[in-house]
Each structure stands twice: as structure tokens, then as C-alpha cells.
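Next comes this protein:
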Amino acid sequence: MGLIASIKSYFYNSTLNKHAKYLKNYGRKVINLNNAKNIGLLYNASNSDNVVAVTKFIELFKNNDVKITSLAYLNEKIKEDSRPNYFNKNDINWYEIPFGEKINNFQKEKYDILICATVQECLPLEYLSATSKASYRVGSYQKDKTEIYDFMINVNQQTDLNYFFKQVYNYLKNIES
């Protein structure tokens, strides 16, 4: 890791630890999909296949009384992105911490379940997951990120979000809450 990457990593981890420690045990409890009424969904929309997978996953809840709020990250700079549920590189600082109105609106919600739908590291989404006020946080397994999530899915090097969503749906439908 180069000097600049080390400095960025230091500031990212320092800020993450500072903000996440206050929320570490914030109303945490196991909630299954049958009992969830409000789900937050974070994903990386830089890959169009991810957008399709998210759309299919949200369709599973179409006839249920579940509100799903999504927030997507685009790994590019877009000056004026008017889409309310997207943010991009213009909405993160030098060391990958997201900021702005869209971020604040998503963060102030108290979700029953927060799903961070990533199979590869994405620091802005990781930060949002770690600082969320969600009762139950779900993400893909990474051995050095166990403090962030309450439940982790091992995707076994899969890069397809459809696999991740299938596992999330199966486990969260059957988990005892």
C-alpha cells in the first residue's frame, strides 16, 4: 500500500470508528423478513447487472407490506445527479466517506433490516452500513468487517448479486426472531 493510500485508509478508519462506536449496540435485534416493515438497501450501481439483480430482489416484496428504500453508489463523477436514490464520487470526500442530503436522508431512517448488497469492497457503502441505525445489518462476509454487520453471507468468491440475494432471502425468511 502506497503512502497516499495509507493516509486515506487511516482517515477512513479513524472516521468510521469514531462514528460507528456510538451506534455499536443501537437497538440491535434479529429480525426476519416476515416481521420486517422497513428495509434499507445499499448497492453499487456501477455495474448494470447489479441494478437488474436489485430490481428483481425488490420485486419479491411487491405484494407485501414492506417499504424498501434503496441507495445506490455510482463509482464515477456526475455533477448534477437528480435521481433521489443515487450518489456518486462527487458525494464522497477524499477518503471515501459519503456526505450530502441524500446520504443524510438515508441515514436518519431507522430500518428494521439494512442490506448492504455488495460482493466486493465498496468503502462508501461499508461506511453507511457501519453507521446505520438499522436494527439488523446484513452484508457479505469479510473476515475483517465482522464489527459492521450482524449477519454475514459467505458468497464464496461469487461476483453475482443474484446469488447474494438468493442467500439473503432464504436465510432471512427462515431465521428466528
Notes: The radius of gyration is 16 Å. The beta strands are 38-44, 67-74, 86-88, 113-117, 136-140, 151-153.
